[in-house]
């Protein structure tokens, strides 16, 4: 069967644009200062393909409600009022002698998160929605009840070379240009101590790689997360909250370390972790660590101290959500097995972390021990 000219031409254009994008990326650098430059991040011009439509002669499969995002709350708490800082900023944070900007940044290894003083998650949620929309993203998960917000896959248009040819005819065929990469961001919003709010941003990435002897076909592969890109969006968020570009960079540079010891306990044929800090801080750190692994947090119940997680298949998500949807048919992949990661107080300043079964007993399976080992590596 002959290939259509349209498909051949599309592949040729895609291969050419990918090759150019690869050369550009090889020539660049990924330091934090580079990513904080205003021309390094631009998702506003990106478009996503429409979702796959179900043919009229087929019915959709049953989707377990445990994987469905909680309903969007119609009425959150009142918007955070602006406060005047000693430097003259109108910030959403509540300035204190320790935090004159009303916020500060903490870090655990290469992961950073923003602590906004004197404000609740409900007060900040509407501004977080605006933040991602203003930066060109569509929200895939918007669940204030669980503090989880994630974007759909999008392309950083700043990675596309702005050469003379694109400047000449780019407006006519700009859809044919592609950086060969897609990014997704997840925001975890957690109530902290003293009525503060902890906000973290994590990055996931995919890259289109040329395949075949003639390099006319391609496939999508996972790329490592980019801590500098996460920091760049954290800086943008601080500007949204009222700081200047210089002040946001200052807080990133002065991020406060939060690295208490984490011990692995494998006695009795089980694997658990002991974190030398109270439950509140351990709960936050475990959530951040899960985001750094290939596990996705579908839901969480702070009262029970449980994160509900599953293995994340980014390739399947790309196909299902429309970027490649027009080239694929068939039913969506079945959701992978769900695990329960339990965080529970063990002493006043000691917290235990374990993967548990439906009865609350420590899970001794190989997969459960692998999750504990991954968490141990991320928390140390």
From TrEMBL:
Q: Which Gene3D superfamilies match?
A: Outer membrane protein assembly factor BamC (3.30.310.170)
State the InterPro entries in the record: BamC_C, NlpB/DapX
The family database entries (PROSITE patterns) matched by this protein are listed as: PROKAR_LIPOPROTEIN (PS51257)
Q: Where is this region: Disordered?
A: 72-104
Q: Which UniProt keywords apply?
A: Membrane, Transmembrane
A Pfam family this chain is assigned to: Lipoprotein_18
What protein is this chain from?
Transmembrane protein
Its source organism is Caballeronia sordidicola (Burkholderia sordidicola)
